[in-house]
Automatic annotation (TrEMBL):
<dbReference type="InterPro" id="IPR029060">
    <property type="entry name" value="PIN-like_dom_sf"/>
</dbReference>
<dbReference type="GO" id="GO:0006364">
    <property type="term" value="P:rRNA processing"/>
</dbReference>
<comment type="similarity">
    <text>Belongs to the UTP23/FCF1 family. UTP23 subfamily.</text>
</comment>
<comment type="function">
    <text>Involved in rRNA-processing and ribosome biogenesis.</text>
</comment>
<dbReference type="InterPro" id="IPR057776">
    <property type="entry name" value="UTP23_sensor"/>
</dbReference>
<dbReference type="Pfam" id="PF24779">
    <property type="entry name" value="UTP23_sensor"/>
</dbReference>
<dbReference type="Pfam" id="PF04900">
    <property type="entry name" value="Fcf1"/>
</dbReference>
<protein>
    <submittedName>
        <fullName>rRNA-processing protein UTP23</fullName>
    </submittedName>
</protein>
<feature type="domain" description="UTP23 sensor motif region">
    <location>
        <begin position="130"/>
        <end position="149"/>
    </location>
</feature>
<feature type="compositionally biased region" description="Basic residues">
    <location>
        <begin position="162"/>
        <end position="172"/>
    </location>
</feature>
<dbReference type="GO" id="GO:0032040">
    <property type="term" value="C:small-subunit processome"/>
</dbReference>
<feature type="compositionally biased region" description="Basic and acidic residues">
    <location>
        <begin position="106"/>
        <end position="129"/>
    </location>
</feature>
<feature type="region of interest" description="Disordered">
    <location>
        <begin position="106"/>
        <end position="187"/>
    </location>
</feature>
<keyword id="KW-0539">Nucleus</keyword>
<keyword id="KW-0698">rRNA processing</keyword>
<keyword id="KW-0690">Ribosome biogenesis</keyword>
<dbReference type="InterPro" id="IPR006984">
    <property type="entry name" value="Fcf1/UTP23"/>
</dbReference>
Amino acid sequence: RCVLKELESLGKALYGAKLIAQRFQVRNCSHHKDPVSGSACLLSMIEEGNPHHYFIATQDQDLANKVKKKAGVPLLFIIQNTMVLDKPSPKSLAVVQKLQTDELVPEHQKQSIVELKEKEGLAKQEGEKRKKRKRAGGPNPLSCLKKKKKKTQEGQEPSTEKKKRRKRKRNRVKAEAVQPVQNNEEE
């Protein structure tokens, strides 16, 4: 109700947001007679561990930061026309971790386990860390390959110097000299 009152007081600029907010189920809050700001009302509704399991959907960064400090309150926001559920806050993750460990082993059993370990001398010492055991490795398989030999013909030794090739020079005969020769052959 406080959010609707705030939207009404802001006027025509947020009329569309007011219409959208009216479509949702309106929850009663403790400030029915004297409304407070929307963000203060939402924060008061999620007090005491969020008993009604509310989600908070906001673009207000101040409200989002305050919600992240409370455990067990999911946070929604919009990025480029897409609704995004924010990842759990560190506070929420810590509460869940604590609940899981408490459910696994009751507290009195934890204390008895610690006492038994101390009696047997199995208690962990803080300075002691396990070292990772190195395994023996072989040589690099690529370094073990045989080197390739150059192909040589039998009876010939590979020469280090290249043989010099001799270029042939062509003797060109003039066209006048060729014609009388051809004429003589035809006769």
